């Protein structure tokens, strides 16, 4: 099954992503149905504060900050010593830090979450709240900032794709599948907690994945081009 998924992603990645985007745009009720699996009337999202899920919610942001800190220190030390530390040179450092700042940072947490206005599942009428449910691609006015669309935690997890793309060619596709699975798993935690819809997670992966792949091709694959510095 895993080999079949890898082969499918390798042959038709854009078609696979487009199918996901179109499906949730055309059938937004899928979000309600999936989130409803983790909700009970009178109890709310019953695993919202479960210890393992709270650990993921609390631990992921500082973990990402720590990883970026190590990358920046290695980048700076390498520049001062004129050698690569932990394999980080200007291109690798620019790719890793840039993909985080542009994807999860600027696009996800600044552009989308603070401006899209989609209410979180735990706040909508269908799940005991007062806000109105809106489809993922509809800009709404149900939330002022730090809203549901798209998932910030999932975006941080999907950022692991940047590291996967730098894996040796023999293992690269497996690493990519692992990175995508990690993003989906973290996103599932946030869905279970009533903080995001499934589409918030999937679209987060699309945004971060697109940014990461574009930067990878621009900053790293040029290295092998004739005349590249």
Characterize the structure shown.
This protein is mainly α and 229 residues long. It is 63% helix and 2% strand. The protein is built from 9 helices and 2 strands. The protein has helices at residues 2-11, 13-26, 29-36, 51-81, 90-112, 152-158, 160-164, 169-192, 198-219; strands spanning 39-40, 44-45. The protein has a two-stranded antiparallel ribbon. A hairpin with a 3-residue loop joins strand 1 and strand 2. Helix 6 (152-158) packs antiparallel against helix 8 and helix 6 runs parallel beside helix 9 (198-219). The longest helix has 31 residues, at 51-81. The chain is elongated, with a radius of gyration of 19 Å.
Largest sheet: 2 strands, antiparallel
Category by helix and strand content? mainly alpha
| Strand and helix order | HHHEEHHHHHH
* DSSP summary, beta strand count: 2
Helix content: 55-70%
Q: What is the spatial order of strands in the main beta sheet?
A: 1-2
Instruction: List segments where confidence is low: pLDDT < 50 over at least 5 consecutive residues.
Output: 224-229
Radius of gyration in whole Å, from Cα?
Answer: 19 Å
Give the CA-based shape.
Answer: elongated
Strand content: under 5%
Q: Write down the overall mean pLDDT.
A: 90
Q: What gap, in angstroms, lies between the N and C termini?
A: 41 Å
Total helices: the number is: 9
């Amino acid at each position: 099954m895993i080999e079949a998924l890898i082969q499918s992603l390798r042959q038709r990645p854009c078609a696979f992503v487009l199918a996901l985007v179109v499906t949730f745009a055309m059938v937004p009720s899928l979000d309600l149905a999936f989130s409803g699996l983790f909700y009970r009337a009178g109890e709310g999202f019953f695993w919202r504060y479960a210890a393992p899920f709270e650990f993921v919610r609390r631990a992921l942001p500082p973990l990402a900050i720590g990883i970026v800190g190590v990358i920046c220190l290695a980048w700076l030390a390498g520049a001062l010593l004129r050698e690569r530390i932990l394999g980080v040179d200007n291109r690798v450092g620019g790719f890793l830090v840039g993909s985080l700042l542009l994807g999860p940072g600027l696009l996800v947490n600044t552009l989308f979450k603070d401006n899209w206005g989609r209410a979180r599942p735990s706040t909508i009428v269908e799940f005991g709240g007062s806000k109105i449910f809106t489809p993922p691609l509809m800009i709404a006015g149900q939330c002022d900032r730090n809203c549901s669309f798209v998932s910030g935690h999932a975006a941080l997890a999907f950022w692991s794709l940047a590291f996967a793309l730098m894996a040796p060619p023999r293992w690269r596709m497996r690493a990519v599948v692992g990175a995508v699975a990690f993003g989906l798993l973290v996103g599932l935690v946030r869905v279970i907690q009533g903080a995001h819809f499934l589409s918030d997670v999937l679209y987060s992966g699309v945004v971060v994945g697109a940014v990461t792949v574009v930067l990878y091709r621009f900053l790293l694959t040029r290295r092998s081009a004739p005349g590249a510095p």
